[in-house]
Amino acid sequence: MRHLKIFSRFLCLVTMAVVLAQPAWAQEIMKAYTDLDTTVKMTKEEFNANAETYEREVPGEKLLSHKYSLPKGWEDISGAQIGGYEFSSKVETILEKYVGLPNMYARSSFNVFVLKLDREINLSHWYHTYMSSRGYSVFAMKDFESGKRVEAESIKINSEATFVVRSVAVLTGDKVLIAEYSVPDTFWDEQRDEAVWSIASFDLVYTDDATIEPHKEFSILDIVKFNYPASWEVKVPRLTVVDELSAVVKTHNIRGELDGRIDSFYIASHVGGTREENLESYKAKYSDIVRFQIGDHIETIENVTFNKTINAGRIDIFKAMDETGKSFTGYEIWLAILESDVYDGYVFLSTIGREYDFLTWSKNQRSFKIMVESMALHGQPR
After folding, report:
1. Which parts of the chain have pLDDT scores under 70?
2. Which string of b and e fits 125-140 if b means at least 16 CB within 10 Å?
């Protein structure tokens, strides 16, 4: 019966894989999964009564200090750490390793490790890609704490056994702290509640507002202000009038190739035509610059928090078409429209499509949101 349950879960994963292969799968990645089940039969008090609590510090890395609880009797096999830790975006830095009680089958394990992030990115997007690259089949996932914590449940098959893995990824500055509680599928039913409580107990000792990469502030005559990640660069045309302003923000990959581009235009409320006419005018100006036409609507971004100077705003996503408007280019156009008392803003992101380069797309849309959500439009037009 137990193997029948695992087989059913595996069939569910195969079905999900077909869904995820479709071009729109990344539109809202969390919708592709079953919401993580947090229901348990064992109470928190029952778990704590039979658990050991650990608090760990990482030398020279205060923000990586963490705590968690494990069932009593687990063995620490971490070994002695000689010297300081080095962190990488490609190789995991192992902090702690534990194994559960011995049995005639494979043993359960609990591992804590760190990876470094180089660019601003959505944590759930990054974590899904990372888990997939390691051969994990993720079937449940949930975002917590405004995108700084993600919990997941997945299946990992290796030569030793099939494991069910309950895990958590916590973002702290430019690093991700990950804990995995792995249980052989044969024992999952009896150990599930302990795994759920152990992962739920995993947390940072200290919290901080540090970002993945430094954010810079840019302003034009104190009229337009916004933040942007340091890996992007801003250029502004020579200023001739203050009633109409513009800026372009770009980022490049390690080969020097353009990865993303944000064109923004600002117009004083007492000049130009109606807001609808201004929008069409700036759409045409944007198309002349990047040689894209705005195509079919993909989605509207919900729950955006704008700066207090913005009276109304919205973000919409479109397919990017070629100059004829007939062929899809593989790119997306994100358009933010911002209205304030004295200036309006029209902000366009040109990015590779989510189905073609998911991580680049995720980095670009994250940077775009940082810029748009921080954007302030104020001052007195002359």
Report:
1. 1-33, 82-83, 379-382
2. bbbbebbeeeebbbbb
Q: What is the pLDDT of residues 37-57, one digit of tens each?
A: 999 999 999 999 999 999 999
For residue 124, count other CB atoms closer than 10 A to its CB.
21
User: How far is it, in rounded angstroms, from Cα 251 to Cα 230?
Assistant: 9
In the chain, the number of structural domains is: 2
Candidates 176, 184, 61; CA nearest to 128 is: 176
Q: Please name the residues in contact with 373: beta carbons below 8 A apart, sequence gap of 6 or more.
A: 304, 305, 306, 307
Q: Find the CATH number of the domain harbouring 130.
A: 3.40.1000.10
Both 199 and 219 in a single domain? no
Same domain, 264 and 321: yes
Q: Are residues 140 and 219 in the same domain?
A: no
62 DSSP 8-state letter: G
Pick from 179, 204, 229: which residue ends a domain?
204
- Does 209 fall in a domain? no
- For residue 106, the 8-state DSSP code is P
Run of H or E including 42: none
Q: What percent of the chain clears pLDDT 90, i.e. is strictly above it?
A: 75
Separation of alpha carbons 136 and 380, rounded Å: 55
What does pTM read for this prediction? 0.85
Domain end call among 148, 176, 204: 204
Distance CA 17, CA 39 (A): 26
Instruction: Name the residue range of residue 49's domain.
Output: 2-204
